[in-house]
Amino acid sequence: MTDGSDRDRDADPLALTLHAVAVRVEAARRLAPPSGTAVLRSIVEATVVLFDAEAASLALHDPTTDRLVFTVAAGAQGEGVVGLAIETGVGVAGYVFATGQPLAISDVARDARFGRETAEQTGYVPRSLVAVPLLDDEGSLGVLEVLDKRGGAFDLRDVELASVFARQATVAIRSSRIERDTAAILRSVLAATDAAHVGDGFEAALDEAIARAARDAGGADDDPLWALADEVARLRAADPAQVDLVRELLAVLVRRAERRPGRAR
Q1: What does residue 128 show for φ and ψ, rounded to 5 degrees?
Q2: How far is CA 92 from CA 104, 114, 184, in A?
Q3: What pTM did the predictor assign?
Q4: What is the rounded distance in angstroms from the CA atom of residue 64 to the CA atom of residue 88?
Q5: Are 144 and 81 in contact (CB under 8 A)?
Q6: Torsion, Cα of 105, 109, 114, 115 (10° steps)
Q7: What is the spatial distance between Cα 34 and Cα 230, in angstroms, rounded to a whole number?
Q8: CA–CA distance, 88 with 96 (Å, rounded to integer)
């Protein structure tokens, strides 16, 4: 049985489209690794522990101001940098962001790229550091920095290891931004496409359609499909052979469902 809102949605191609997109975004959110500031903080905390470093931080690019903003940090000397914003060409972080090249510096005082004044603003001036870019196919998102490894100087292996953490942070950031911006992107694209054909109530109607679609997608926790999505997400930590077995079993079930007479569409 369907209520009035379901009938309205089925009769409204715009709302139907938004609903379909929202459902897929919710599925992607459940299947993707967790995202957000908490995950980024866990990444820098793990970096500090693994390197036995004084601090680690993530500076993310803000395209509206074209500055790098230090968003999260960890370690005994890390918290002072949070909230600091620098120009994209300034300091070691700016250089790594602009060039996409990682750096390991054993004595920052002897390196012209090091911004001492910026470091002094944080209350801690490091002796050595590793800085690696957060890169993917769409470009650079920011920089991960690790300061003062207690066990000695940074080397090439440290650069490679920091790059692994940077890749994890990049995945989390992209996932978070896609989830956050989907409704805004839909709104701007649809408004640009249909502006000549709609009245003054278009924005309000579009907002309501997006909100309704998100509610429908996010509130269907009792749907067996979401339970399956959650179980598949847990398989990320499983042995690859087990994942292959599950994939084969799912393929069999899908083929049986497709052949079933009178199956729901």
Answers
A1: -145, 160
A2: 10, 5, 34
A3: 0.58
A4: 12
A5: no
A6: 150
A7: 12
A8: 9
Dihedral, CA atoms, 100, 150, 45, 172, nearest 10 degrees?
20
Helix (H/G/I), strand (E/B), else coil: 186: helix
pLDDT per residue, tens digit, the chain (265 aa), is 445 545 454 556 666 666 666 665 655 555 544 456 778 888 899 999 999 999 999 999 998 899 999 999 999 898 899 999 999 988 999 999 999 999 999 999 999 999 998 899 999 999 999 999 999 887 889 999 999 999 888 999 999 999 999 988 888 787 666 555 555 555 555 555 554 444 555 556 656 655 555 555 555 555 565 566 566 666 666 666 666 666 666 667 667 766 666 544 4
d(C-alpha 253, C-alpha 33), whole Å: 26
On the 0-12 / 13-18 / 19+ scale of CB atoms within 10 A, 114 is buried
Query: Are 206 and 190 within 8 A, CB to CB?
Result: yes
